[in-house]
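User: C-alpha cells in, sequence out, please.
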C-alpha cells in the first residue's frame, strides 16, 4: 500500500478508510506492507504496532525522458521550507540546506524537538520503492490517491509488470476542485448582489440569500461543470493527470455512484477498470440487524480502533432519549470542512438556535470537533451563543454517540466527504 500520508484514524475519514482496507486484507490472509514518502510520525508508529511493515520512501528520480526531474544534491530545499514538524528529521538526514541557519538556531531546534516527545524514526526505515518491490515482490500494489500512482506506479510497472496495480481515488480530486471553484464563484456573486442592495438602499427590503443556498442547482447541472478538456488551465491539467492515472491502473476504486457514472459516461473509462468501493461494514452482521430489528447500538466489533478501547464498528452508545445537543466534526486541513465551519457559524447555527429559542429551548448547544484547528478557528468559540469549539476528539465514535443531531453543511467535496 503506497500512502500519501500515514493514516490517522481519529482525525479523518480517509484514515478510517485506509485502516478498514488494511484490516480486510489482513483478515483475508494477505501480508500488508505500508510505504509512504511522508515523515515518520505517531500514525506510522501505530501502524507498526499492529504488526504491519512500514517504510518511508525516497521519491524515485529518473531522467527527463521519463518526466521526472534529475535530483541535484547540491540544490537542497532550505530548512525553513519544511513544515515545522519535519525540520528536525530534514536536519538530521541531511535533506535540507542549512548554510544560512545560525549554529545557535540549529541547536535550539534540536533541543526543542528532541524534548517534545516526537516519534523517533527507526534505523534503516527510509528506503526506495525499488528495494520494497525487490524484498516483498507483491502481488498487489494499492495506491492511495492518483499522485502516489503518478510518483511510484511507473517503477512497479517496470520492475513487477505482473503485479496488479490498484488505485483508490478517495475522491475525484478534479471534481472536488471544480465544485469548490463553483461555490467560490457563487460567493463572489452573492457578495456583489449584497453590495448592489446596499448601494440602492434595498438591504432592509430583501436580505441577500446566503450563498450556500445556490449550491444544489450547480450539482444538478452538467456533471463536468464547465470543464473543457482542451483547456490548459490548472484544473484541466489535473483532470488529465488524474484520468491518465486511472487509465494506467488495472483497477480503480471510487467511493460514490456519481463518480462512477461520471467516469463511465463522460470520460468513457472502461467499466472493467472501475469498481464501487464506498464504506466497509460487516455485511453478515448488518443483515442480522436488519432482519431482527435490533438496535445498531452496540454493533459487534470486527476489530479495535488503533489506540482506543472503542470498537471499530459502532460503540456502546447512549440511547437516543438520553442524548442531547448538536455536533459537527471534520479536520481543518480540509478546505471543505473550514468552509463548513464558516457556514455553521455565520448562517445555520444562528438560525437553528433562534428557532429553538422560539420553541422554548434556549439551552441548545453545538459542539464542533476537528483535528488541526487554527487559532482563528478556535476564536469562533462562543458559549453565549451555544457555539463550542472543542478541537480534536480523542475518540470520535464515543463523542458522536452523545449527541442527537449531526450538522455537516459541506458545500463542496467528492468521494468519502460528500457521502
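Assistant: Sequence out:
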Amino acid at each position: 500500500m503506497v500512502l500519501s500520508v500515514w493514516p490517522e484514524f481519529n482525525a479523518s475519514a480517509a484514515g478510517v478508510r485506509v485502516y478498514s482496507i488494511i484490516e480486510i486484507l489482513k483478515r483475508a490472509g494477505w501480508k500488508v506492507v505500508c510505504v509512504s514518502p511522508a515523515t515518520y510520525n505517531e500514525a506510522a508508529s501505530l501502524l507498526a504496532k499492529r504488526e504491519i511493515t512500514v517504510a518511508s520512501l525516497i521519491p524515485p528520480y529518473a531522467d527527463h525522458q521519463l518526466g521526472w526531474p534529475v535530483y541535484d544534491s547540491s540544490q537542497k530545499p532550505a530548512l525553513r521550507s519544511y513544515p515545522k514538524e519535519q525540520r528536525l528529521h530534514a536536519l538530521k538526514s541531511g535533506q535540507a540546506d542549512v548554510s544560512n541557519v545560525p549554529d545557535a538556531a540549529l541547536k535550539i531546534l534540536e533541543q526543542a524537538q528532541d524534548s517534545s516527545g516526537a516519534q523517533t524514526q527507526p534505523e534503516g526505515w527510509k528506503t526506495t520503492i525499488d528495494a520494497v518491490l525487490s524484498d516483498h515482490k507483491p502481488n498487489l500494489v494499492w495506491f492511495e490517491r492518483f499522485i502516489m500512482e503518478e510518483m511510484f506506479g511507473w517503477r512497479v510497472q517496470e520492475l513487477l509488470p505482473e503485479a496488479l496495480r490498484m488505485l483508490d481515488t478517495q475522491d475525484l480530486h478534479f471534481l472536488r476542485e471544480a465544485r469548490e471553484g463553483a461555490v467560490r464563484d457563487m460567493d463572489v456573486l452573492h457578495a456583489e448582489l449584497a453590495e448592489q442592495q446596499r448601494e440602492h438602499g434595498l438591504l432592509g427590503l430583501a436580505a441577500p440569500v446566503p450563498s450556500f443556498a445556490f449550491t444544489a442547482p450547480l450539482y444538478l447541472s452538467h456533471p463536468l461543470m464547465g470543464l473543457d478538456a482542451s483547456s490548459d488551465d490548472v484544473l484541466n491539467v489535473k483532470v488529465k493527470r488524474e484520468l491518465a492515472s486511472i487509465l494506467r491502473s488495472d483497477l480503480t476504486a471510487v467511493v460514490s455512484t456519481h463518480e462512477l457514472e461520471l467516469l463511465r459516461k463522460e470520460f468513457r473509462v472502461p467499466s472493467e477498470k472501475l469498481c464501487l468501493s464506498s464504506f466497509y461494514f460487516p455485511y453478515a452482521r448488518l443483515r442480522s440487524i436488519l432482519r431482527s430489528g435490533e438496535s445498531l447500538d452496540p454493533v459487534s466489533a470486527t476489530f479495535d480502533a488503533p489506540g482506543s478501547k472503542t470498537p471499530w464498528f459502532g460503540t456502546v452508545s447512549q440511547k437516543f432519549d438520553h442524548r442531547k445537543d448538536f455536533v459537527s466534526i471534520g479536520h481543518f486541513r480540509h478546505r471543505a470542512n473550514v468552509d463548513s465551519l464558516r457556514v455553521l457559524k455565520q448562517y445555520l447555527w444562528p438560525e437553528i438556535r433562534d428557532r429553538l429559542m422560539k420553541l422554548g429551548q434556549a439551552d441548545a448547544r453545538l459542539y464542533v470537533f476537528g483535528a488541526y484547528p487554527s487559532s482563528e478557528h478556535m476564536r469562533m468559540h462562543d458559549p453565549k451563543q451555544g457555539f463550542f469549539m472543542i478541537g480534536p476528539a480523542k475518540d470520535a465514535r464515543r463523542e458522536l454517540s452523545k449527541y442527537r443531531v449531526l450538522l455537516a453543511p459541506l458545500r463542496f467535496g467528492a468521494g468519502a466527504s460528500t457521502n
